[in-house]
UniProtKB/TrEMBL annotation:
GO terms (BP aspect): glutamate biosynthetic process
Binding residue positions for NAD(+): T207, N238
GO cellular component terms listed in the entry, alphabetical order: cytosol
Protein name: glutamate dehydrogenase (NADP(+))
Domain of life: Eukaryota
Positions of the record's site feature: Important for catalysis: D164
The EC number(s) this enzyme carries: 1.4.1.4
Gene Ontology molecular functions: glutamate dehydrogenase (NADP+) activity; nucleotide binding
Residues annotated as catalytic: K124 (proton donor)
Gene3D superfamilies, per the entry: Glutamate Dehydrogenase, chain A, domain 3 (1.10.285.10), Leucine Dehydrogenase, chain A, domain 1 (3.40.50.10860), NAD(P)-binding Rossmann-like Domain (3.40.50.720)
SMART domains: ELFV_dehydrog
Length: 392
């Protein structure tokens, strides 16, 4: 790393020593800026400033379970940078959520949003609330309590949140309804809304479809396409579902999907009928991916094994890989397994799903690699369209 940028990075670590995910995201960017600083050192103060959020909010979210028990979670919103527009970025509900993860996501969002060329700044938020196993009414009560505080800090020209892990149409609807009730106004303060109340056509599909289109263009450079390509996909949420749908449409075959419990491997391929089952399982029944293996003979479920220093999903033989679950899901060993098993292209549907060691393996092998800042920007680009539609 450039000595001046190393000094900036050391300052980031010294200020927040217990935020490894944020350090990783900052280091990844700073390592690429040495030539910029050599050419014009006046950028250095700007680079230093962009590594610090304009605002980081943390608040209490009290809510009641169906049996009347009081629960308390933490809510967050990191408003990273508004230099080119209102803060824009999703809300994540997951027990692993903390300030480090949200700062890394907000930092990544700044650059991703600017790549779309749309006037959007970067932000991210969420809570350590785990919706898994919760009833619709419990999720509703949590979302309403969360919005009771968040509404003070957002607005169509200030900060426009959206969905992320465990925050889909249901959660956006609950939060938007509460915002509208408190503020007595119908504005485009959230994106990812239902079509009936200001949402944009194809927004749910945009991130997954966009990632596949990105990889299609990479394959085109090499004179090939998705026809007959075997693909491995991680995750089973919104991004993974529509990544799989578009791969099937373009002639590829998806053989894996996963959730926090493990992954399913279907050598025959996840066809449209099987994908419809997964969509109902995840979006309606809120079930586990392991149920797929029971439903479809010939497939197998591999439970997660935390004692391993690699993910067996990435050992499945494939032509293309689409990490679409969460951060740091592909390490150096996983990346080597992919290369050894014939993978020629990787498209990141998730944010920072590959560790620095994994990225080095991909680059050394000279395979086609689409980093998340570009490959998964289709979702926020479509959100920009929704913001424009809501402003009419």
């Amino acid at each position: 790393m450039h000595p001046d940028l190393q000094e900036v990075f050391d300052g980031v670590v010294a200020r927040d020593p217990a935020q490894p995910e944020f350090h990783q995201a900052v280091k990844e960017v700073l390592e690429s800026l040495g030539s910029v600083v050599d050419e014009d050192a006046s950028y250095l103060p700007i680079i230093k400033a962009i590594c610090e959020p304009e605002r980081a909010l943390q608040f209490r979210v009290p809510w009641y379970t169906d049996d009347g028990k009081l629960m308390v979670n933490r809510g967050f919103r990191v408003e990273m940078n508004s230099a080119i527009g209102p803060y824009k970025g999703g809300l994540r509900f997951h027990p692993t959520v903390n300030l480090s993860i949200l700062k890394f996501l907000a930092f990544e969002q700044v650059f991703k949003n600017s790549l779309t060329t749309l006037p959007m700044g970067g932000g991210k938020g969420g809570s350590d609330f785990d919706p898994k196993g919760r009833s619709d009414t419990e999720v509703m009560r949590f979302c309403q309590s969360f919005m009771m505080e968040l509404q003070r800090h957002i607005g169509p020209n200030t900060d426009v949140p959206a969905g992320d892990i465990n925050v889909g149409g249901r959660e956006i609807g609950y939060m938007y309804g509460m915002y509208k009730k408190i503020r007595n106004e119908f504005t485009g303060v959230l994106t990812g809304k239902g079509m009936e109340y200001g949402g944009s056509l194809i927004r749910p599909e945009a991130t997954g479809y966009g990632c596949v289109y990105f990889v299609r263009e990479m394959l085109k450079v090499k004179g090939t396409n998705f026809n007959g390509k075997v693909c491995v996909v991680s995750g089973s949420g919104n991004v993974a579902q529509y990544t799989t749908e578009k791969i099937l449409e373009l002639g590829g075959k998806v053989v894996t999907m996963s959730d926090s419990g493990g992954f399913i491997h279907d050598p025959a391929g996840i066809d449209s009928e099987k994908l419809a089952y997964i969509m109902e399982l995840k979006n309606v029944k809120r079930g586990r991916i392991s149920e797929y293996a029971t439903k479809f003979p010939g497939s197998e479920f591999v439970p997660i094994d935390k004692s391993l220093d690699y993910n067996p999903l990435w050992k499945v033989k494939c032509d293309c890989a689409f990490p679409s679950a969460t951060q740091n899901e592909i390490n150096a060993k996983d990346a080597k397994h992919l290369i050894d098993n014939g993978c020629v292209a990787v498209g990141e549907g998730a944010n920072m799903p590959t560790t620095p060691g994994g990225v080095e393996v991909f680059q050394h092998a000279k395979i086609m690699y689409g980093p998340g800042k570009a490959a998964n920007a289709g979702g926020v680009a479509c959100s920009g369209l929704e913001m424009s539609q809501n402003a009419l």
